[in-house]
Design brief:
The structure is a homodimer. In chain A, α5 runs parallel beside α6, α5 crosses α9 and α11 packs parallel to α13. The mean pLDDT of chain A is 95. Chain A starts with 12 loop residues before the first helix and ends with a helix. Chain A is of the alpha/beta class. In chain A, α8 links the parallel β5 and β6. The first copy, chain A, is 37% helix and 15% strand. The first copy, chain A, is globular. Chain A has a 7-stranded mixed sheet, with helices on both faces. A 3-stranded antiparallel sheet of chain A has the order 9-12-11, covered by helices on one side. A two-stranded parallel sheet of chain A has the order 1-10.
Chain lengths: 406, 406
């Protein structure tokens, strides 16, 4: 074999631009802290500690002897269970309006590719779920942010800002409701306003509603499916991950009454053959999960939110509006560089043998420079651990400010 | 809410272009045949009937009570099991060279996006695995085919054809070895020739080796990882689907020693959070699967191949070279339009209460008009069913030719 000298091939620019996880840089620091014997409270991740319902896990005993492909759009049984779930919410969605996806992630991916060409734009409220960057990056789509602020509880900015973000290449608005990372639950009026904006400008509304059940103080999440004219422009991203504390099974769905979008997503789904089969088996148990489960989870998370909201609110210089849903919020801290603070917490600080890992918020913004003094906090730990984490942060902030001369 | 009249948004051209499954049109015909009481032998799909090893399925009993996210690149245990598997093949691949993917499909997707920009080109031997069209479509990549022919056992065409397919936008060669749909096992010399071609022109070699264990008559599959200069341009796509008859779990991997490609694929993997967790649990049982399993599967498939090869070879006008690997082959039939023949088999014909479903080969070609008289046959049925299927085809072909005036 002759192999004349040649330039080694290089990866693509779009692969180069693909963002790495904003907390990845912190992971080795957390491991080092643990290695020093420091207990690390993880407020940085959205992995719930709640058990996956036993009636779901038990379905695994029924796995076939051949773990075979399922239909690309999902097993009829799984799709029927989705239909039943949506019927309880008041939405009548049939098998041609529901498509099984590999987590909510794949539903975002399918929606993005179904709605856009390379070079198109999507409008998104920032701060936003950082992985939208990844899907936009793959699709060659530029995210045009409209800014929400903590003072306003991260509710929607005025219509004029949406208008200002429009361009001839705008194809969709991507809304996460209830919101990750801010915990904001948009009101019905807000959802209607976004819907009317999309309608007026011929945009798709991609509504990521995976935290639908996680709403507090008697709130209700408004699904974009409830918009009276939603048939041809609304695409809902859904997932079993948070609803049933089953993040690892990777199962979700795309729900839309737009037949072209559904057909396009199904063609993409055929390309990857099928969604995870064991996950679809587990999902069948969801039919047996009673309303008590969701209520119990809601009560537990509301308690956790209260512990953190009250605890952090008492720390001088910390600002956060009361979170309304999901299990995250974005807090402003009396620091100049939350990345530095997050690293310092892991590397240079401990309080009574413990420290805290938080997610710096800059990765949740598209506008450079924003979120530098903010962190995303996830409350997926039990109440005692959250109280301990608050103590750590209360001790850490004055010390950090002193060390950095703030 | 005011909703002034607006044009409803339309799906993207790239979504419109996304091909639908080539056998999808035939599915309702197969269902109708079954409804008429006709037994349908499925030679159209690659879903093995072999049991997933019990030692793998049994791992499901160890599922945790919280079905949590796994690391984006795979659990350390799964990645270690991949390492161990590759070590047995003679390749030393560490955790920075292996990445867990959601089936081999996602590995193709990651490789495609890591290597190309929208508008780039990939060279592929046709006929090829039809779902490459889907991943290329998402990535905006044009597949440039070089043609293999049945007379040559679908082995590689001369170098000059690869040269002719080159353009300034060529970024990679996508090779499936052993080949789906042709069953061809490329010789070491052929793999080296493709490697040298890639090397000379600065292209990546994406080598889809998911049928590695399915080789007959004492052949060995040559992994592109064995190319002596493979470190910076070889990307291997792998999957547990066929190896352990576990298609439905959706677990595979991307293997490459190119650090940039690995890092880019990991960033894409972080975007979708994690590969299926239950699948990774099942995969741990693969460590306990002895060499007897692969040998037994190989013996069984070789027997099946022989039954089909001999049986079909005796039907006048049918041409196929002896298949060397995988569990497919492409056969030429004495028909003008295999799509029409496949539909006719399901709608207008039965022999002793049975008929056969085959995959028309035109969907496996990029060049319009090619493969019109060919079908892909999968031999994933037991030997008795295959013999019965041969009888059906032997009775069907003269009848079809007569009816169509051929």
């Amino acid at each position: 074999m002759t192999t004349p000298a040649a330039v080694a091939p290089r990866i693509s620019e779009r692969a180069r631009r693909m963002p790495s996880s904003p907390i990845r840089r912190l992971m080795p620091l957390a491991e080092a802290a643990r290695a020093r014997g420091v207990r690390v409270y993880h407020l940085n991740i959205g992995q719930p500690d709640i058990e996956t319902p036993a009636c779901m896990r038990e379905k695994l005993a029924k796995a076939e002897r051949v773990l075979a492909y399922s239909p690309s759009g999902g097993t009829p049984e799984y799709v029927a269970s989705l239909s039943a779930y949506y019927r309880k919410l008041g939405f009548d969605l049939g098998p041609d309006e529901l498509l099984a996806t590999t987590g909510g992630s794949e539903a975002v991916l399918f929606a993005m590719f179904a709605c856009t060409e390379d070079g198109d734009e999507a409008i998104v409220v920032e701060p936003f779920y950082t992985n939208y960057n990844s899907f936009a990056g793959l699709a060659g789509v530029t995210l045009r942010p409209v800014r929400a602020t903590g003072e306003n509880g991260f509710h929607l900015p005025p219509e004029s800002e949406f208008e200002a973000a429009l361009s001839p290449r705008s194809r969709l608005v991507l809304l996460c409701n209830p919101n990750n990372p801010t915990g904001t639950v948009y009101t019905r009026e807000e959802v209607e306003r976004v819907g009317a904006f999309c309608r007026r400008h011929g945009l798709f509304l991609v509504s990521d509603e995976v935290y639908r059940e996680f709403v507090y103080d008697g709130r209700e999440a408004t699904s974009a499916l409830s918009l009276p004219d939603s048939d041809d422009f609304v695409i809902v991203v859904d997932s079993l991950s948070k609803r049933y504390s089953a993040c690892g099974i990777r199962l979700g769905c795309l729900a839309t009454r737009n037949r072209d979008v559904h057909a396009a997503a199904l063609r993409m789904a055929q390309g990857r053959l099928s969604p995870p089969g064991l996950a679809q088996l587990v999902a069948l148990g969801a039919n047996e999960v009673g309303p008590d489960y969701a209520r119990g989870v809601q009560v537990e998370y509301q308690k956790r939110r209260d512990v953190l909201f009250e605890g952090l609110g008492r720390i001088p210089g910390v600002f956060l509006a009361k979170p309304e849903g999901a299990f995250y919020f974005v807090a402003r801290l009396p620091v100049k560089d939350a990345d530095d603070f997050a690293a310092w917490l892991l590397s240079d600080f401990s309080h009574e043998g413990a420290t805290v890992m938080v997610a710096p918020a800059s990765g949740f913004y598209a506008t450079p420079g924003l979120g530098r003094d903010e962190v995303r906090i996830a409350y997926v730990l039990n109440v005692d651990d959250l109280r301990a984490a608050v103590k750590v942060l209360a001790a850490a902030l004055p010390r950090y400010r002193q060390e950095r001369g703030l």
